[in-house]
Each structure stands twice: as C-alpha cells, then as structure tokens.
Design goal:
Blueprint (H helix, E strand, L loop, with lengths): L35 H23 L12 E5 L2 E7 L3 E3 L5 E10 L11 E8 L7 H16 L5 E7 L3 E9 L4 H10 L9 H14 L6 E8 L6 H14 L7 E6 L5 H10 L1 E7 L5 H13 L1 E12 L4 E5 L5 E3 L2 E10 L3 E9 L6 E4 L1 E9 L2 E6 L5 E5 L2 H6 L3 H25 L3 H22 L2 H14 L2 H5 L5 H13 L14
Parallel strand pairs: 3-19, 5-6, 5-8, 8-9, 9-10
Antiparallel strand pairs: 1-2, 2-4, 4-15, 6-7, 11-14, 11-17, 12-15, 13-14, 16-19, 17-18
C-alpha cells in the first residue's frame, strides 16, 4: 500500500484562507478571459475575500468589543469547534445569531498508508462534447488512470442517449492500464444526454462492489443539461438515500457554459462531494488528481452534523447545505474529511426576539465513520442567547472578529450567489434589492462595531448596484455562472482541497 505523499505547505487544505477558497476560478476573472462586464465580477469576487484575509491578520478589536472564545471537542480523527458572533438579540430585531462551525480532520505523518481507492468516472459523450471537449476529457481520464496504484480500482461509465459501462471495476494493474487507455481512446461523441440512466448505472456499480477498508469516489463530467433534470435529481436522491452513506461520494464537473449548474450543484450536495465549473478543460487534470488525493487521505467518512436546537430556536441556513428536519432540530451532510483538512461552515440561527429572556441555542453532534466504526463528537455547551431591550446591551455582545467573518465569508457570498441567480433569470430588480438589503442590514451595525473590512464590503456592494446593467448584458452568461460557483465555494472554506502540484 503506498504511503501518503508529502504536501507542500501552500497546498494543504488546512492552510486555506478565504481568498484561496476560489482556487479553480478566481484566476480566470481577468480582462484576457472575460468581457468588461466580468471585470465587475472580478472586483465583486476577489476584492472582498482578499480584503478580509488581510484584515483578519491585523484586526484590533475596539475596546468595548466582546470576545466569544471558540469551544473545541475531539473524538477519534475529528475535531469540532464552534464560535458565535454574538450572545444576544435585540428585542423586536431579526433574532439572527451566526455560529462558525469548524470540522478538522486529524493530520497524519507523511508515512501514513493511504486508503486504496475505487474511482468511478461517469463521462458525458453526447453530441455537445464534440471536438476539443471530448479530446481533452479523454486525455484527462488517461492521465488519472496513470496515477492509480495497483491497489486502486477503476471503472468508466460513458453516456449519451444511453449509458455504457466501458470499463468494469477492476484493479489498476500494469497490464490493465494500456487496455484502458485504448478503451478511452475509442470513446466517440454523439447523441443526447441521458444523465439519469448513467447515474443509476454508476451508483449500482459502486453499491455492488463495496469492500471494507477501501474508499470510493465517483466523478461526473458533463457539459450539458440532462434530458430530464427533475428525473435525474429525484432518482439520485432515492439512490443516495438507499446507499450506505459511508461508501459513496459523488463530485460533479461542469464544462463550458451550457450545463445545468443547479442540477450539478444539487447532485454534488446530495452525493456529499464537490461541484466544479470549468469554462475550459485546462484544469480538468488538476481537479481529477485532487479528487483522487482527497479520497486516498480520508480519515473520516459520512459526516452528519446534527444541529439540535433549544425551544423556539430555528436553524435557517448552513452555508447553503441542504437541511433535513429531525425531531430536535436539523441535520446536514458535508461529506468526508481528509488528513489535515479544516472545513468551515457558518450556521444561521433565528432566536425568539419578542420578549426579554434567555434562550438555549442548543447543541451540535457530529457523527462519522472511521475505520469501519461509527463515532460521534459533541460540542461543549453553546452559550445562552439573551433577548435584550437595550440596543447598547445588544451591541456590547457582538464579537467583532467573528461578526466580520460571518458578514464577509457567509452573508456577502450568499448575496452574490443570489445576484448571479437573479441576473441569469432576467430579474435585475431582485438582484439590486439583494445588494441593497445587504447594505441596510449591516450599515447601522457597523457604525457601532467599526469594522474596516465590513465597511469596505459595504462600499463595494454599493458600487455594484450601479454595475448590474453590465453584468446583466453578459449574453454568454459564463461570468454569472463563475460568480455563482466562486461565491458558493467561498461560503464553504476548506471544503475543496487547495490546488496541488501533483498535476503540474
């Protein structure tokens, strides 16, 4: 079994900062690649996160600022940390409290043995993939085959109007690889996009070959819309629900500007994997390599985060992850952790705010699979949240550092996702309202908290209101797709591996 490859410090996920969470796309936002309208997006995307990263290192809280210490718990390979941005809500205010939830995978020595991996690629070969797309996709698949160890297994499902299991799951021996290269070379484009049947074929393949002590990664590559997106979503939801959650991870890679990003994002979230947008295929090799390395270095699978809430308290959002209701709150499934990974998720609570008094925020329980056994880690007691009648008492409870992270990392990127969505739908007025509401919500608070980082973001949001015409005029809509994807990634720092040098 191969040993873990040493990683350069700049490539480890635990060293990710907000600006590096845009790893695959931020560099593409430039005059050479997009129109002048996209330069507006470049400012919107990169400016706020880089401002935050710089200020995060040298912010000095004002003398009256509260500091709410993060609490940490560890079980097995997983460490759970929580920190709230405030400990009170204002009577007749909005009742919002945000909590930063950090999930860390135990780092391991460079000599650790990596997990043997079952890698399944589901490749779109429909007519729209003709030319350079299918050629580069074939080349990328061949190169990832070359990176497989003899203990790894590989399978390939391609699809157009019908799926085809081109390579059955088998060990990546030196004898098998040349044959697989020939099979990949013979894949030809043409036909429709029957993604539903391809997903069904891929998942059944994975479920049929489960073995303990192995990790599985399935990667869907497509440039188009499924023939029936609703069917694909519903089918995959049922298949994922009935599949053992510790054995299946699906990541999706959308190519070009014609694919259905809503579908691809939903599939990745339901499959507890990652979702990528590639305007071009130049970085497909890098993404496939990083997905393989992530699978090999897994230390905890099938993470389920239970947000148990106190009386009257609701969870309204967790970095955009799908929330499932439970008897005492909600849960979401962020996927797996590899060695040294640190994933950050901002959870938004709404606390009763019409009557003075104290409210228990609740508790956090994280369940995960490690070494074939189920483990759990429980947060230490979360702080009580007071509903107060004096604005001064409310403002005194704000932790400036935590609050500015919640605004810049989570809230602002959510607004940018909404702006991209509204502009794609031709709803410019809603996009403008989203930016305006964001400013109103945070302007008065910042007058008291005095965060220069938030002040810069508010200025930027104000400027973008005047640039919506340019963004809406982007007929190709590639820039809006990029805006949505980058903002989605920025809301989930650490969810993706930092770009590696393995494929460079």
């Amino acid at each position: 079994m191969p040993s873990r490859t040493p990683r350069n410090e700049s490539h480890t996920a635990s060293s990710q900062s907000p600006e590096t969470s845009n790893s695959y796309l931020s560099g593409k936002i430039s005059a050479g690649l997009f129109s002048i309208a996209v330069l507006v997006i470049g400012t919107l995307l990169i400016g706020a996160t880089s401002q935050f990263a710089v200020a995060h290192k040298k912010t000095a809280a004002h003398k009256d600022a509260a500091t709410h210490k993060a609490t940490t718990s560890t079980s097995g390979a997983v460490t759970l940390s929580t920190q709230v941005d405030r400990t009170s809500v204002f009577n007749d205010g909005d009742g919002i409290v945000r909590m930063e939830l950090v999930l860390s995978g135990k780092d391991a020595p460079f000599s650790m043995q990596v997990l043997p991996t079952d890698l399944v690629v589901i490749l779109d070969r429909s007519g729209s993939m003709s030319g350079e797309k299918i050629e580069q996709a074939r080349s990328a698949v061949k190169r990832i085959i070359d990176q497989l160890e003899p203990s790894d297994r590989f399978a390939l499902v391609s699809f157009s109007s019908h799926p085809s299991q081109d390579i059955s799951l088998s060990f990546a021996t030196s004898q098998a690889k040349p044959h697989w290269h020939q099979v990949v070379s013979n894949i030809r484009d043409g036909g429709g996009t029957n993604m539903t049947s391809a997903l069904q074929t891929g998942m059944r393949l994975v479920d049929s070959i489960r073995e303990p002590g192995r990790t599985t990664r399935t990667i869907l590559i497509s440039d188009g819309h499924a023939n029936n997106a609703a069917n694909a979503t519903n089918l995959f939801r049922e298949l994922a629900k009935n599949s053992p959650s510790d054995t299946f991870t699906l990541s999706t890679i959308g190519i070009g500007n014609g694919f259905d990003e809503v579908l691809m994002n939903n599939l990745a979230d339901m499959g507890t994997g990652n979702s990528y947008y590639l305007r071009e295929l130049a970085q497909l090799d890098e993404i496939l390599t990083d997905e393989l390395l992530t699978a090999r270095e897994t230390v905890a699978n099938a993470l389920t985060v239970h947000l148990q809430t106190g009386n009257g308290v609701r969870v309204t959002d967790a970095a955009g992850y799908s929330l499932e209701e439970t008897l005492n709150g909600v849960l979401f499934r962020p996927g797996a952790l590899f060695a040294g990974q640190e994933r950050r998720v901002w959870v938004t609570y709404q606390v009763p705010h019409t009557k003075a008094g104290n409210h228990d925020l609740g508790n956090v329980v994280v369940e995960f699979q490690q070494g074939g056994e189920r483990h759990r880690v429980t947060s230490k007691t979360l702080p009580q949240i007071a509903c107060v009648e004096k604005e001064a008492d409310f403002l005194a409870s704000i932790d400036r550092n935590a609050w500015e992270r919640s605004v810049v990392v989570d809230e602002y990127n959510q607004v940018k996702q909404d702006v991209a969505k509204y502009l794609r739908e031709g709803k410019k007025d809603k996009a403008k309202k989203a930016l305006g509401d964001f400013q109103v919500r945070n302007q008065r608070m910042n007058e008291a908290v005095s965060s220069p980082v938030v002040a810069d973001v508010l200025t930027e949001a104000r400027e973008q209101e005047g640039n919506l015409e340019q963004l809406a005029a982007d007929k190709e809509q590639g820039s809006l797709k990029a805006l949505g994807y980058i903002s989605r990634d920025a809301r989930r720092p650490g969810a993706k591996r930092a770009p590696s040098s393995a494929s460079k």
